[in-house]
Amino acid sequence: MARLFLGLDSSTQSLSAVVIDLDARKVVHEKSLNFDQALPHYKTRNGVLPNRDPLVKHGPPLMWAEALDLLFAGMKKDGVPLDKILAISGCGQQHGSVYLNDRAAGALANLDHKKSLVENLHGIFARKTSPIWMDSSTTAECAEIRKKLGGIKYTASRTGSDTFERFTGPQIRKFHKTEPDAYDKTAGIALVSSFMSSLLAGKIAPMDFGDGAGMNLMEIRHKLWDTDALKATAPNLKKKLPPLAASGQVIGPVSAYFVNKYSLNPAALSTVWTGDNPASVIGLGLMKPGQTAISLGTSDTFFGTMQKCLTDENGEGHVFGSPTGDYMTLICFKNGSLAREKIRELYGIRDWKEFGRLVASTKPGGNGGILLPWFEAEIVPRVNRPGIHRFDLDEKDVAGNCRAIFEAQMLSMRLHSQWMNVSPEKIHATGGASNDAALLQIMADVMNCRVMRIEVSKSAALGAALIAAHGWLAATGKKPKWENLAAGFTDPIPNSEIRPDKKAAKIYDNLLEKYAACEGEALQLS
Ligand code: XUL
Predict the structure, then answer these.
(1) Which one, 27, 64, 80, 437, has the greatest CB density within 10 A?
(2) Dist. CA 112 → ligand 1 center (Å)
(3) Residues of the chain with pLDDT under 70
């Protein structure tokens, strides 16, 4: 009988599912549900609730729960053999937090399949909305925690990252400061990942070492809650946090809710979820140190596997636990595809094909023009006052601006990833814009490295399905090797390799210095 595993990805804009057949080494089902389109009554835009303050970005946790119902209903309707799934894991947009009151545990344990998840979860939240990773409203709290922990370098070496506005610790501190009563009534805090796994398990789920590291609360080298960081963040915090565990660790059988309602296999194991980036490390096959990936998603991220924990003294990059038990490094740039979309809108460019054609019609380095695309407050480098900045670039030059935005995104990645001390020998490219050959050529030239496209767009959900398989095998006494497990699922697309052009790479070596100077100048203005 085929061994089937389900991976879910609760991301900013959508909830996705990937079902794999481990023996056939095939993805047998993929499904995705866009929050804005499928659940318009939550009134989100790109999965985010509107807010007058541009720095505040929240999402509705009930929407994520309702999406889970809809996705399972859709899979059942599509004839996915849910009764044959052996284990489920998942991942979520990192850093987002869900605040539960003392009724949550009881409600989770007694989910009534005759009602919807939304009805079942009525009255369990201590805070209606969840701050998500796009939120940058906690600068004061970051400074307070960082100071108490002894500065950037120490905070980073202790928790894996400097304090960042989107990280859960500073967000919790802001909640405690601005709504102390609601904070006091919070019995449990979950991450998006652990909230979703709690629904599937029917009990409060652990947080994993990957997503847990995105909170500024976990001691990165020992993978334990850091007492000083907890103290620096908010009172009585330890009591509100679940235990930490490895992703894929079995929590128990899935909640009867999903068995009764969607005919899910009653013996299916529900396992600990992780963050979307740690899951992508697996889904992109980055099991060996030095293997890197660039994901061109809502945000652009640069990440890879690292065996020994090395942290960024300047505090721009992050270290998280990897599902393999090693570490992963990551740098996240908020102005990713949203910024590319803004340029497309600004110049009325029909579609991405046209955008790629315009880029290809221009020369590497675009005559030295630089465009800093901080449409939204940026994470790396830190920009709290959004704005775009052009240097030696004519605003009316449509093709030049299309090239310049992607060049700046890649130059910024190169500049701000130098601390990792990894000279990538190959890059796996993924995410929406990775389908565009002209953009990938810029990536290969700026990074001076081979770039390969990877087959699945849903690398995070695939990674989660592989984590489920790993957890299931481990629970049945096996010691699965990650490379063997992922073989066949994570191979790059044949003949997709793009090699750097020597001349162009030289141009970018020189342009990097100018980019850094322009960035410095623009930061003075921001
Ligand atoms: C990583 C980060 C983003 C989100 C996107 O630190 O904030 O990549 O995980 O979902």
Answers:
(1) 64
(2) 33
(3) 455-457
pTM for the whole structure:
0.89
Report CA(281)–ligand 1 centroid distance (Å).
13
pLDDT of 418:
86
Using alpha carbons, list the distances in angstroms from residue 368 to 242, 365, 507, 514, 518. 51, 5, 9, 8, 11
Question: Which strand (E) or helix (H) includes residue 276?
Answer: helix 276-283
Nearest to residue 269, comparing CAs of 259, 279, 261? 259
Separation CA 316–CA 304 (nearest Å): 15
CA 196, chain centre distance (Å)? 15
φ, ψ of residue 501 in degrees (nearest 5): -90, 125
Please give all residues whose beta carbon lies within 6 A of any atom in ligand 1, as ranges. 11-12, 93-95, 133, 166, 214, 275-277, 299, 301, 330, 332
Predicted local distance difference test score (pLDDT) of residue 424: 83
| Alpha-helical runs (H) found in 101-191 | 104-109, 117-120, 139-149, 152-159, 168-178, 180-184
| Cα angle for residues 39, 41, 42 (degrees, 5° grid) | 80
∠ Cα 503 507 508 (to 5°): 120
Q: How far is the CA of 396 from the centre of ligand 1 (A)?
A: 33
User: Directed axis angle between helix 398-416 and helix 352-360, to 10°?
Assistant: 80
Give the residue among 469, 432, 470 at the shortest CA–CA distance from 454.
432
- pLDDT for the residue numbered 457: 65
Give the per-residue pLDDT at 456.
61
- Which atom of ligand 1 lies at the shortest distance from residue 164's CA? 6
CA of 330 to the centre of ligand 1 (A): 9
